[in-house]
Amino acid sequence: MTPAAWTSWPSREALARDTRRRSRTVIAWSVRAGLLTLMLWGTFTGGRFGPWEIVVGLLGVLVCALLAIAFFRTTLDNRLWPSLGLFALLMLAAFGAGEAGATTAATVLWCGCAVTALERLPFAAGTPATAVALGAYAMVNTDDWTTTAITAAGLCLAGYVLRLDAEARGSAQRLLDQERAARVAEAETAALDERSRIAREIHDVLAHSLSAQLVHLEAARLLIEREPAGEFRDEVLQRVVAARSMAREGLSETRQALSALRGEVSPVEDFLRQLVTAEPAEVRVEGEQRALTAQASQTVRRVAQEALTNVRKHAPGARVVMRLEYQSDGIVLEVRDSGGRGPAGDLAVSGSGYGLLGMRERAELLGGTLEAGPGEEGFVVSLRVPA
User: Fold this and answer.
1) Cβ atoms of residues 376 and 327 within 8 Å
2) Please, is 309 exposed, middle or buried when counting C-beta atoms within 10 Å of its C-beta (0-12, 13-18, 19+)?
3) Which segments of the chain are extended strands (E)?
4) What does the alpha-carbon distance between residue 17 and residue 42 come to, in Å, rounded to a whole number?
């Protein structure tokens, strides 16, 4: 055995016993219940006890149980001196039980301490502690030294085997966790590769097409402006300028979508402030800001764009307040307008072709909700998604 093995603690997985199967958990609790029953039986058999003796005995058993629980927790945290202190208190409790005549309870404590110390403490501390516990047990059981020696050797072997078994299960759990982490990383890498491929396809097709449209629309605008002024010329020019503006917005949104696919997304609050730059609008951010998932971030951005587009269409001139609240388990976006010259009613259709139904579906895909309806003054759109 290497010197490091003498001073090292069992792994946390082994001490915590998180790798137990259901059947093993039932067996473990059955053993504990059996030991507690044996201690109670050993405490109150062999003589007549008055009420005070029964109360003192029950309190003693309860204190021993609490000390054992505390010992398990301190060893789980690898705190050596508190663990040894609790071990010493359990040994004193065993000596007290032996002096009071409850030899069975004392024997259970000594044997349990011997096995547990060897199982949960570093060998450098567990071996002397086990020797002390077994020495106390041997001093009490002096009738048959052969039986006592065999029992002590069996307890040492049991503690060592339990330690090896716990370490083996802990190692298996660590390997399982590493395998799961590797699978998750592999899945994330595959998803990122696929998103990058989709982003390249969108860029090669849609972004190039929109850029070409912008060039042609700008050339058309310059040609139309050279023509003599007139009603027909002005109407055509207006349509071309509007088409160029929509193409520019579409290209900007396409670039944002590409950035989201590649994971290169700016903070949502910065996007909202940029979105309302030319509007009579205010952006309020509440809660502790943090990075959002790509899906949640994209949903908030699209709903904010759609809500602002609806305000422009149905309530032109209205003042807009966007409130973004970071909550512990999600994020809330509320877009509220003050009402305007136009009707603030039907939001099923918007200028970009993405209406209330689409916003609600996008939220529900992430397990969120979207509510929209008249407010005190104008219209309110409230989005909540997990993040």
Assistant:
1) no
2) middle
3) 281-286, 320-326, 330-337, 369-374, 379-386
4) 29
Query: For residue 331, what are the CA distances in angstroms to 5, 77, 171, 259?
Result: 49, 36, 39, 21
Residue 378 has pLDDT above 60, yes or no: yes
Residue 294's closest CA among 267, 322, 326, 334?
Answer: 267
Distance, CA of 171 to CA of 166 (rounded, Å) = 9
Number of C-beta neighbours around residue 163 at 10 A: 19
- DSSP assignment string, 278-312: TSSEEEEEES------HHHHHHHHHHHHHHHHHHH
Tell me, what amino acid is at 343? P
What pTM did the predictor assign?
A: 0.48
Give me the half-sphere count of Cα atoms (radius 13 Å) on the Cβ side of residue 18.
12
What would the pLDDT profile of 71-85 be if each residue is shown by its tens digit? 989 998 889 899 999
152 contacts 134 by C-beta, under 8 angstroms: yes
Residue 387 is given by DSSP the state -
- Comparing C-alpha atoms, which of 361, 310, 366, 363 is closest to residue 339? 310
